[in-house]
Specification:
Length: 96
Amino acid sequence: MIVHIVMFAFKEANKEVNLENVVTQLKALVQKIDVLVSMEVGVDFNGSERAFDLVLYSTFETKEDLKTYATHPEHLKVVQLIKEVTSESKVVDYIQ
């Protein structure tokens, strides 16, 4: 199993609305991209200065499936939105 984790720091402008919109759009990808085995999206409640605002945890059967997801048109639409509303992101991909 391939695990893909991404953390995002959101810009302060319209932060709550943008978080809600991104969460909704990310969760919708499960129904749109068949290689996406599972997805969990979480919004930070801690507020620590070390914390990011949102985390995405998704799983795939193979590395090739992760590549398919990364270039899928529906995913790319969400990526474009995320780039507009975030200031930073970090990613980890690993084999479970």
